[in-house]
Queue: 3 jobs
Job 1
Amino acid sequence: MSRTLTSTTGRPAAGRSPSAGRVLAIGVRRGLLELRQLLRTPREAFTLLSTPLLFILLSTMTDGDIPGSTVPMADLMVAGGITTMIVQAGLLTLTQTLAVEREDGTLLRMRAVRHGIPAYLVAKTVVVTLTALGGSALTLAAGVLVVGSSPPADLRHWLILLSVTALGLVAVVPVGAVLGAILPNAREALGFLMIPLLALMVFSGIYFPMTKLPTAVQDVVQAFPLKWTAQGVRAAVLPDSALSAETAGSWELPKVYLINGAWAVMGFLLAPRVLHRMTRRASGNRPKRTEASS
């Protein structure tokens, strides 16, 4: 009987799981479809453009140089805008999206599909990665054309920018997924997350030099990927003369990749389990509410 059902539904036979490559391919296709739908929505498209425009405006209003260098503070603000796109897509937007889709039953339906949760997480990673890369490219291009900031100096710095951006996103996407799964509802997700996230962004040196912060604060933020993502972005778009404002006097790129890589691995191991647990709880509660209402 089970073989007949398997052949008619087209699903893998019981006990057989699709390969990791197939799960990845399914997730990528789903993510590209979601991205096309997103870009066709005027409100969502405007949201993607608003952050780059805001940071370019702030950059034109920023005076002075990075302490100890001749690099304009406006260049630091452009680098901060790129990092903000990563944080906005991977944490704020994803957390809200997951909270909404948990409430409307999308996440519950994905749990009913074999390996649906890992594929769902891959799809969301694709969406936030491409939107963040697009917003970062707009911020960088506008910074060069409007503010007069410099792009990455050579191929090595371009590769640093791309790799740090991608790894930073992969590091924060599972965090956004977990937060979206555990926060009470979509309305409270943004309010609950905004204040601590803004504090972490400010203290991570995204908008001004880390050397201006107390030593204790510098020690705390080193445990989080935001600090290292911001530092990696600065390593790619700022000249070495801006190292005077870095706490270690160097870009510490090995630490950038090591710590963000550790967050990515731990996150993708933890996030599917949390999502499964949340959807299992939802599927267990829903029938009880239905019976009570009837």
Job 2
Amino acid sequence: MDRRPGLSARLKLTLSYVGFLAVAGALLLAVVWVFLLRYVPDNSKGLLGISPNRYLLVHTFAPAAAVAMAFLLVFGLVGGWILAGRMLAPLILIGDAARKAGSGSLSHRIRMEGRQDEFRELSDAFDSMLGQLESHVAEQQRFAANASHELRTPLAISRTLLDVARKDPARDRGELIERLYAVNTRAIDLTEALLLLSRGDSGSFRPEGVDLSLLAEEAAETLLPLAEQRRITLDVTGGAAPTTGSAELLLRMVTNLVQNAVVHNLPAGGAVTVHTEAYGDTSVLRVENTGPRLPPELVATLTEPFRRGTERVRTDEHAGVGLGLAIVHSIVRAHDGTLGLLPRPDGGLLVTVRLPGTP
């Protein structure tokens, strides 16, 4: 990076050390003059008739003082240069690490040794920042690769169907249209999910007063036919849970949680419970469902994009795109809340969303 020419920080520190020594030496000489030499009589007898007079003392002391001042200046230049170099050495390491990070090498770490001082704290903070940045970049790369793969699949299927229709003009066009419609619908759903995920990450919405209990009832009413079709009991309990945010995004959050709870449940006879309540300045939403037992290591990855609950492929009309809980996590984070996933001992999942409440 080009910058305007000027003195380096090391030279500035060195000159400041020299200036401090020069000022200290001048003050010392001034003290000697003010409190000692000016009281020496300036006559031929000197002080009490036995000591040299002021003229003799000044001419004897001045050369020695000049030599001492010159020594202080040289000593200040050499010592200040060395001390400044040692003091700025950690900044050189941090600067090298920053240049490597700027060139794309995010795996480099400073790992500064020594006592816990300001430079050590700065180094540790920089290493922590590099670690988080490396993690985010890797996550974004995985997300881009997965999104490209997911979008490529319906496009490839559409191309295959069109190639088959072109080679076989006698093929039933009604079946072809239905299959193309299904594939196109899935591509649109995926694109809308990606846009919603991006919107949640950016936090670009106008906050307004929202009651999670009303959103839970609306989501349950929308998904009740799906629950009845799968013979799953869907209950909404609790009381008001007011918060502030985007009603549209929060409704999508609740809908995704309830839909996941219904879809990833027992084949029949399962249950889903949606509970809302307010604890002081926190509004809580809990979605609990029955289902197969989930290992804790799998639950920890459910909020990653394109991770489908039990790694199974669904082929029904409610097949997801693997972004349901990722969108939920993004919306919760955009509203300064927390999302907790806990596997139930008897099977299923307990999802807890905590958002800042309002009076």
Job 3
Amino acid sequence: MSQPTAAAGAAPATMRAVVVTRPGGLEALEIKDVPVPVRMPGWVRIKVKAFGVNESEVTTRKGESDAVVTYPRVPGIEGVGVVDEADEDSGLRPGQQVATMMGDMGRSYDGAYAQYVTVPAEQVIPFETGLPWDVVGALPEMFQTAYGSLTRGLDLKAGQTLLIRGGTSTVGLSAAGIAKDIGATVLSTTRSEARAGELRAAGVDHPLVDSGTIADQVRELLPGGVDAALELVGCSVLADTLNAVRLHGTVCFTGALAGQWTIPDFTPFMIPGGVRLTSYNGAATDLPADVLAHQLQAITEGRLQVPVAKVYHGLEQVRDAQADLESGTTPGKHVVVLDDRDLGSREW
């Protein structure tokens, strides 16, 4: 049986965490003293340094998630930090920098809105970087989704053309940067002409203002259509996105920012002949350690930009982070950073 390895000095018996006891508004996010999670064999306990704030966690707080979510629950579908305890044969060592995400973390078991979190070992990605925690904390879910969509979903290659529908979302901005790093030509959409500069700053070659239909704009630039398209807006525009893609090109359905996940009276004949439609809903394993290392190096060298909207300090600011995320007024990722000073008041 594998023996555990632990950081020097035992973890405390209790920790601070944001807990949703029952669904509700921002007031449902409560800071509580709770037991530090006990690590099961095959799992890793992580001392959390930072975490991103996501729509999924807002959905959990409101009680609008699927039945896998139970209460009380510590939200948080992603986080970065250092290994506190792991199985000896896991390949992970105490103090090692790691990222984790997805896998029902913060949904069926407690997540990263806390000083410590435990997750399955296969859900842990080790890395080494000198980048600050507020930058690294923005990456896991955002980059995993973008990278997985472009690789598993679209098999994007250097020299190809890519359309990103929903380009000013965090995944859209990340996908643009990763696609440019791959060597693709990128077209990306925004509903506001005023936000076209954000797309250019992310490396987009051709920003497009999306009025609800963009296939004609795409084909004015590329009469044959794009090689690949990443659909982040959803089913309400999927037919139009399909019409922007060339014969034998591929559309990957990854998100539904507009809120529509199904198509009434769907028929396969709505897909243009010879155009491929796939989807992406991946896991932490879709962002291998070597890929994350490459992305971290690209950020360090300035080749890849991280779209951070705002950085918050301490669990007391989680409510502010979720409120700002819901308002939609500041584009980019909202990141909460924890450190040894996160030992202030026990109440909001």
